[in-house]
Amino acid sequence: MTDVKITIIDREGIAHEVDAPTDMAMNLMEVVRSYELAPEGTIGVCGGMAMCASCQCYVLSDHDLPEKQDDEEAMLSEAFDVKENSRLGCQIQITPAMDGLKVELAPES
Amino acid sequence: MIKTDILIIGAGPTGLFTVFEAGLLKLKCHLIDALPQPGGQCSEIYPKKPIYDIPAYPEILAGDLTEKLLEQGKQFEPGFTLGERAETIEKQEDGTFIVTTNKGTKHHAPVVAIAGGLGSFEPRKPQISNIQAYEDRGVEYMIKDPELYRDKKVVIAGGGDSALDWSIFLADVAKEVTLVHRRNEFRGALDSVEKVQDLKNQGKINLITPAEVVGLSGEGKLEAVSIKLNSEAEPFDLACDHFVPLFGLSPKLGPMANWGLEIEKNAIKVNNALDYQTNIPGVFAIGDVNTYPGKLKLILCGFHEATLMCQAAYQIINPGKRYVLKYTTVSGIDGFDGSRKEAPKAVVKAIE
Questions:
Q1: Which pLDDT band holds residue A66 (cuts at 50, 70, 90)?
Q2: Quick one: pLDDT at residue B74?
Q3: A40 to B253: CB separation less than 8 angstroms, yes or no
Q4: In angstroms, rounded to a whole number, what is the distance separating the alpha carbons of residues B214 and B128?
């Protein structure tokens, strides 16, 4: 199996269960963009360098996610609407361990 | 009034390369950009990051790409209006355009090429309920004239390079500099972080971390900010004349969205079968700012689009005038500054 199921709640509050490939080196931000769950230009603005926080999301399931690296930590410390469960989608790689992940996109800022 | 052949809105890589391609067709360019320096995202967001998909460059730093593009187009003497945002476009009776910036600078050209990337970079404003009331009354989101802060009490918020660099700079200018950041850690160039540490030790920068500015007060102008330390339940007031939140910039399509252009997915629809013209004849959109079936937002695609657009611009500016594509290797490059670059001539000489 090369796809995992991920549930993404968009900025309008609508939940989407999508298939995400694990073999294309994709991250969560790119999955959101590939399904156009947020308008182009409002997500992944910096391209995935942890430099804009436009892909901030709240992790709702209790998956064991990789630890935040320094640059993600630093960006989240400057972003708005940050909560305990905030992560940058661009820093979460889609791996088999992500099956069943549920996230909600943070508001656009 | 600034007059040119092709008015380019956006001085990122696509806009800069347009200067070169237009120059080959003897068309002059002028560029407008909201940022104070050319390069667009490449110089504003990630100048020190490598790019790996520029043809013939296995690796190039975004800042170096900007430098090289400027160098490549230099002999075509582009003009620049920097730090100003294109605000309005007015089509004239003769089909030419006048584009006016937010500072009132007027530009007149027969062809407009929008190479605006994701839009103009606007500062990200912190969520403080009454902040708008103090804008330009003590709250500034960008430091344009450091002299404004001479002998004033300044509070800067943020944890990145610009917060660090301006704190360092203003330490010698302002009466008092306070830097507030949500964490103890800062993200910036190592020497900037160390310099702030030094200035803090010398008592020249008042560092308050981890903390956040949560409120503003003052009659008619800013007089104090309210700062909440993470460790305390209640915020405290700190008297100041200026509050400068530096939380980065985010791109917005901005006023261009009201120019009557066909917009789809926050981008401008163009005719990709032909010349990247928009629904307004004479106005083109190239690079990340445009969209068409199969569009890819890549610098190298922007270069291609710019090249085809210039051919169409030539036809508009020189109707009916013959031209055929020439190779730079064959024809060389004649700059508007009188310079000439050409391939060295082969030697014709007998070998005895």
A1: very high
A2: 97
A3: no
A4: 6
- Was B105 annotated as part of a binding site? no
Clarify whether residues B35 and B14 are in a common domain. Answer: yes
ipTM: 0.80
Mean per-residue pLDDT of chain A: 93
Q: Measured at the alpha carbon of residue B114, what is the angle toward residues B119 and B303, in degrees to the nearest 5?
A: 100
Using CA atoms, how far residue B272 sits from B78, B260, B344, in Å, is 26, 19, 37
The residues on A that touch B, with CB distances below 8 Å, are 39-42, 45-46, 49, 51-52, 54, 70-71, 73-75, 77-78, 80-81, 109
Residue A3 to chain B, least CA–CA distance (Å): 24
* B162 closest CA partner among B189, B199, B136: B189
Q: Which domain holds residue B197?
A: 125-247
Residues of chain B with pLDDT under 70: none
- The CATH number linked to B101 is 3.50.50.60
> How many structural domains does chain B have?
2
Task: Give residue A1's pLDDT.
Answer: 59
The answer to whether B119 contacts A40, with C-beta atoms less than 8 Å apart, is no
Who contacts B234 (Cβ-Cβ below 8 Å, separation ≥6)? Answer: B228
Instruction: Select the CATH number that applies to the domain covering A3-105 from these four: 3.10.20.30, 3.40.50.20, 3.40.50.1240, 3.40.50.150.
Output: 3.10.20.30
Domain residues of chain A, as ranges?
Answer: 3-105
**Is there a binding annotation on residue B41?**
yes
Q: Rounded to an integer, what distance in angstroms lies between the CA atom of residue B3 and that of residue A92? A: 49
